[in-house]
Amino acid sequence: MSAPMPSGPRGRPYVKPIGPPAGAHVPPAAPAAAEHDPYAPYDVGAVSVGDLVGNVTRDLSTLMRQELALAQAELKQEATKTAKGAGIMAGAAVAGWFVLLFLSVALWAGLSNVMDPGWAAVIVAVIWAVIAAVLFATGRAKLRQVHPTAERTVETLSQVPDALKGSRGGNP
Hints:
This protein has a domain at about 45-150. The chain is an all-alpha fold. It contains 5 helices and no strands. Helix 2 (about 50-110) runs antiparallel to helix 3 and helix 2 packs antiparallel against helix 4 (about 150-155). It has helices at about 35, 50-110, 115-145, 150-155, 160-165. It is rod-shaped.
């Protein structure tokens, strides 16, 4: 007895297709030299203009999608840096507020036992002003590390016109 034939959709026997479907356009194979060097010139005389335009369009579309993905990755990275800097600044503000509120009252009350309450309040205010300045400087330094432009994307996009003219890597 022979083995049962595997079935495809709707219980019909599955038959492995041979070659492309009828009417499908199959582009001509590239010469063997192109397998080793993608920049090796080959005769395009046998390729139709429509195929060449289609290839260029596909390659430009792929390039633009890749550049867009790179820009998105760079902007996400910069947004993460910005969020971290802003989070540090917000945390410093909240912590500074509560510390200023509770310790200032306690320190002012303690210093009021040895000096005039007015001078005690001035001393407490100067201490917290120094602390606030240090926290602000730290947060500002974090925010200065942010680069809002996608530098690598701008660099690679500037090479596209040269690539379209036929030069590679920006070299004429």
